[in-house]
Specification:
- The chain has 3 domains: 174 residues, FAD/NAD(P)-binding domain; 153 residues, D-Amino Acid Oxidase, Chain A, domain 2; 76 residues, Rieske Iron-sulfur Protein, CATH 2.102.10.
- The protein is built from 9 helices and 25 strands.
- Strands 3, 4, 5, 6, 11, 12, 13, 14 and 15 form a 9-stranded mixed β-sheet that branches. Strands 1, 2, 7, 8, 9, 10, 16 and 17 form an 8-stranded mixed β-sheet that branches. Strands 19-18-20-25 form a 4-stranded antiparallel β-sheet, with no helix packed on it.
- β22 and β23 form a beta hairpin.
- α2 runs parallel beside α6.
- The chain is globular, with a radius of gyration of 22 Å.
- 47% of the residues are buried.
- The chain binds flavin-adenine dinucleotide.
- Flavin-adenine dinucleotide binds next to α2, β11, β15 and α8.
Length: 469
């Protein structure tokens, strides 16, 4: 699954866990969340370790678009739900996060193509014109400095001037080097389960046991924490990204319509790229991803990939304390850079025993009933749909592979992959373009030959050698 980011950056592999540990703080997950949290704990005296199931940056962070922006198209929705004070607080949190990341990049001289850009929020559709104008009014009311866009390409747009873009993996790999000088990072070390005892947790990994006083869950999907019903508070949305050669421009765009098209530019070694994404569809609707990619493929894209993010129902993340010594950071509603920066600050403060002004705002225990309903119905819908359509189309059910190409199991055979998700038994959908098996219920992904790429599943899918050969 090469992306523009993985093809234009390099990172050294770190060793896996090779012994049992007795430590103070364990951070699970080496994406932008885990690393921003670890960065905030660099000056602590406690024994801290970070474990990553695959390689640092191999999760959804490697498949984002890399916009660092507060123009997120969500303020009208937050306002409708919570009113002006909370909306303004969320807006200010995003501005603060941008200042923090600017400082991290400057202080550490991180080379990650960090550029200031203009950002547009637009619509091309009369149906969404009113929605955009409402967003504009609220933004002005909470103190956002913006202008009406003058670009003729859009029906209506607003623009701001102080947003940024970067190369997400160059940022992450630099942070990894800085952090690992003080905090050991173990790659290819997958957490399989967490058991709570009175004063500590026992964390079982595939490489050893870690006894730890505190656990920070930065592993994207909120599993491992049954008593808190977190999976019932989140849904997953998928988008499709295409990268093509292009002229270079210094702006980014985001539409307010329900497909949320997004675009930015990137320059690497004198080659200019346009990065375009669209979709934002609930994963339970994605049983024919090839069709979505087809739209992109026709335009001769250099790179194609899909990505998903966790949505919370009130457009604000879940960051903070779940239990006395258990912390979580997830649910970024596609704005993972600013919100993971805030995760670092909030969880860092809580661990140090300091207060943080956003603790209440992002409290992971807040109740969002609408999303619980959506989470249950969408995963049940996906389960039923895949049950009905299983084996009806060529890429479902038991399939075989030749030269990494999926073919029907009664063709010329090499392997048989049983396409059931080991997490909760949902039938998997084959993603022809990226050669992955994707779970339409909870978002686990597996390589064509069954190796788990991202959870909640902790197991590979079963592969049998075909007896006929
Ligand atoms: C199409 C799209 C575009 C986006 N573009 C942007 C953008 O332009 N700007 C922006 O701000 N946000 C963007 N986002 C959102 C952003 O990508 C995510 O919110 C963010 O990357 C989440 O980071 P994370 O560290 O929480 O997750 P991840 O990057 O997935 O990191 C979690 C890590 O935990 C590891 N892990 C999982 N399970 C275990 C286990 N059992 N044991 C050990 N390790 C484990 C995984 O391997 C992974 O590396 C976009 C999202 C989408 C869908």
């Amino acid at each position: 699954m090469d992306t523009l980011w993985s093809s234009t950056s390099f990172d050294k592999k770190y060793k896996e866990l090779d012994k049992d540990l007795d430590i103070d703080i364990l951070i699970i997950g080496g994406g932008i969340t885990g690393l921003n949290i670890a960065y905030n704990l660099l000056n602590e005296r406690e024994k801290i370790v970070l474990v990553e199931a695959n390689r640092v940056g191999s999760g959804v962070t490697s498949r984002m678009t890399g916009k660092i922006s507060y123009l997120q198209g969500c303020y009208y929705d937050i306002y409708k739900k919570y009113g002006r004070t909370i909306t303004k607080k969320y807006f200010l949190s995003q501005l603060e996060a941008i200042e923090i990341i600017k400082r991290i990049i400057a202080d550490n001289k991180i080379k990650c193509n960090f550029e200031k850009t203009i950002s547009y929020l637009y619509t091309d559709n009369y149906k969404y014109l009113n929605r955009l104008k409402q967003e504009e009014n609220i933004l002005r009311d909470i103190g956002c400095i913006l202008e009406k866009g003058t670009k003729k390409d859009f029906l209506y747009s607003i623009k701001v001037f102080d947003t940024y873009t970067f190369h997400p993996l160059k940022y992450l790999y630099s942070l990894k080097k800085i952090i690992s000088k003080k905090i050991p990072i173990y790659e290819n070390t997958r957490v399989l389960g967490i058991e709570k005892y009175n004063e500590y947790y026992l964390v079982k990994t595939d490489k050893g046991i870690i006894k730890t006083k505190r656990v920070v869950l930065a592993n994207f999907y909120p599993n491992f924490i049954k008593p808190f019903f977190m999976p019932l508070k989140v849904t997953l949305q998928k988008s499709y990204i295409g990268v093509s050669s292009s002229e270079m421009h210094n702006y980014t765009t985001l539409s307010v319509d329900n497909k949320q098209s997004s675009m930015r530019f990137y320059k690497d070694k004198n080659i200019n790229y346009k990065i375009y994404s669209y979709g934002n569809v609930n994963i339970s609707n994605e049983n024919n991803m090839s069709k979505r990619f087809l739209k992109l493929k026709r335009d001769n894209y250099n790179y194609l990939w899909s990505n998903m993010d966790i949505m919370t129902g009130d457009f604000m993340p879940f960051i903070g304390r779940l239990d006395k010594n258990l912390y979580i950071a997830t649910g970024y509603n596609t704005w993972g850079i600013t919100n993971s920066i805030l995760s670092g600050k909030i969880i860092g403060d809580l661990i140090r025993g300091d207060s943080n002004k956003y603790e209440g705002l992002f409290n992971p225990k807040r109740k969002i009933y609408k999303n619980t309903f959506l989470a249950v119905t969408s995963s049940f819908k996906a389960y039923l749909k895949e049950l009905i359509y299983h084996n009806k189309s060529w890429y479902h059910g038991r399939i075989t592979f030749q030269d990494n190409k999926a073919i029907l199991s009664d063709g010329v055979d090499k392997h048989v992959v049983l396409s059931k998700c080991p997490h909760m038994g949902c039938n998997l959908v084959y993603n022809e373009v990226e050669k992955t098996w994707d779970c339409p219920c909870h978002g686990s992904r597996f390589s064509a030959l069954g190796n788990v790429i991202c959870g909640p599943s902790n197991k590979n899918i079963k592969v049998e050698n075909d007896k006929k050969n």
